[in-house]
Design goal:
482 residues, Alkaline Phosphatase, subunit A, 2 domains, 9-stranded mixed β-sheet, 31% helix
């Protein structure tokens, strides 16, 4: 089992960790030099990468399996729901009538019908899906991310990129989150930060570059309505220049800050200080990066292509994800947040699914797959589209609201070496439980890591310096790959 130890272990006066120094001493007896040992420590490869990058479309709130990719047209009326089904390019797959564009490209997709876990909660489920680890509920309760959370797959990707042998600073982030941190636009709490997308105990220096798009009113949902270009500027969160501050003045401020920080570092080499220093340096490089700002210029895309993705926040964020991976970002998460308090969390009605949510998904997902294919990027980009749970087989009311149901929900994969035009696993007659081939979040995480060439058994140091696995017991779904 491979260990990769970063900046969280205690260091000797020379800057090497005591663990590394001891390992080096022992390795010398075996004929290994310190450079060879460090190179071996840095190897995180779990085989030849099938994909260079991942675009993770996260449909937060829990889309109904019965209204999307696991329809049951022969089920009793109280189960099957209000929508009709249509045939797709995959013979055994009938999907919602409101996904016509996706139906026309399912020969490029792998539909997993049997995602399952028992964490029937948005925050816990969202953390589980994005990290491959169960969430430890904060002491005293709550739904916010903490520095004790497990690191997201994107953050692990960022960490490994920064610690790989010969790693150099990049103008483009290895991990990005669009269009906002999850929970920012929740009407009932502007401070809510859902767990799962962050670096957790790895340290803030490995959080994703996160953009920020405001909403107009408490009830506004820019993820589905048409957005103007003035709204879609995708500013890097916390890095927009204040009025009256030029880049020259900012550079002078940076020099003063650097002098002050140098003094602090002479007093304290605590890992927390080091993590903040890494975060500050990375933020500075991104703030002045022409490559990042060029990639975030959505207006450079042709108008007709933007129309195909959908002029709403989710569609344009999905297009932005393609721009970022084309520029060199390795992992991009696009949130489709429940900003009106419901969204995909459709407890009360299916009306928004029909009018807004499913059509927005249809345009964005179909356009992304076709766009990547046209550009020759689909084979090297793994697309993952899913929520954190499904919905109850039986409706909760007469308007087809459905409650939380985490024991069965779908995930859609494309590109990145994944077999095309297949359905993986089957569910029972009511879309309530898997019949065969259940897939846990750990299995999906291991499969995504493997696609990127990252060993899912890799170990990283936790806050105490103890090595822990990035995935705990997950199985790579090799049968999904061509």
């Amino acid at each position: 089992m491979l260990n990769l130890l970063g900046n969280r272990t205690a260091t000797t006066c020379s800057g090497l960790s005591r663990r590394t120094a001891l390992q080096a001493a022992g390795a010398g007896l075996l004929g290994l030099t310190l450079p060879k040992l460090l190179a071996a420590e840095g190897l995180a490869q779990g085989g030849k990468p099938r994909a260079k990058s991942v675009i993770f479309l996260f449909l937060f709130g829990g889309p109904s399996q019965l209204e999307t990719f696991d329809c049951k047209p022969d089920a009793p009326a109280k189960i099957r729901g209000p929508f009709k089904t249509i045939a797709s390019r995959t013979p055994e797959l009938r999907i919602s009538e409101h996904l016509p564009r996706v139906a026309s490209i399912t020969d490029q997709l792998c539909v997993i019908r049997t995602m399952t876990h028992n964490y029937n909660d948005h925050s816990g489920g969202g953390h589980y899906i994005q990290t491959g680890h169960r969430w430890q509920v904060p002491i005293g309760g709550g739904f916010n991310a903490t520095n004790r959370d497990w690191p997201s797959m994107g953050s692990v990707t960022e960490y490994l990129a920064q610690h790989s042998p010969g790693a150099k600073g990049s103008e483009i982030p290895n991990y990005a989150v669009l269009p906002n941190f999850l929970g920012k636009l929740q009407e009932y709490s502007s401070q809510l930060r859902r767990p799962g997308e962050y670096a957790g105990w790895l340290g803030r220096g490995y959080d994703g570059l996160t953009t920020s798009i405001p909403k107009k009113t408490a009830k506004d949902n820019p993820y589905t309505r048409e957005c103007t270009d003035d709204e879609l500027k995708f500013e890097v969160q916390g890095l927009s220049l204040p009025d009256g501050i030029t880049l020259d003045r900012l550079e002078k401020r940076q020099t003063l800050i650097s002098q002050f920080d140098d003094s602090l570092r002479q007093l304290d080499r605590h890992p927390g200080i080091l993590a903040w220093d890494r975060l500050q340096q990375r933020a500075w490089s991104l703030a002045t990066s022409s490559a990042t700002r060029k990639a975030l210029n959505l207006q450079a895309e042709p108008a007709d292509l933007r129309d195909k993705y959908g002029r709403n926040l989710f569609g344009q964020s999905t297009l932005m994800a393609r721009r970022l991976i084309e520029a060199g970002t390795r992992f991009v998460t696009v949130h489709f947040d429940a900003v009106d308090g419901y969204g995909w969390d459709s407890h009360t009605t299916s009306a928004d699914l029909q009018k807004h949510l499913i059509p927005a998904l249809d345009n964005a997902l179909a356009s992304l797959v076709a766009d990547l294919k046209d550009r020759g990027l689909l084979d090297e980009t793994l697309v993952v589209c899913m929520g954190e749970m499904g919905r109850t087989p039986q409706a909760a009311n007469a308007t087809w609201g459905r409650s939380h149901w985490s024991t069965l929900f779908p995930a859609v994969l494309a590109g990145g070496g994944i077999k095309r035009g297949i359905v993986y696993g089957s569910s029972d007659k009511d879309a309530a439980y898997p019949i065969d081939k259940p897939v846990k979040p750990e299995d999906l995480a291991a499969t995504i890591y493997s696609a990127l060439g990252i060993d899912p058994h890799l170990q990283l140091p936790d806050p105490t310096g103890r090595p822990v696995s990035i995935v705990d017991g997950g199985r790579v779904l090799e049968e999904l790959f061509a």
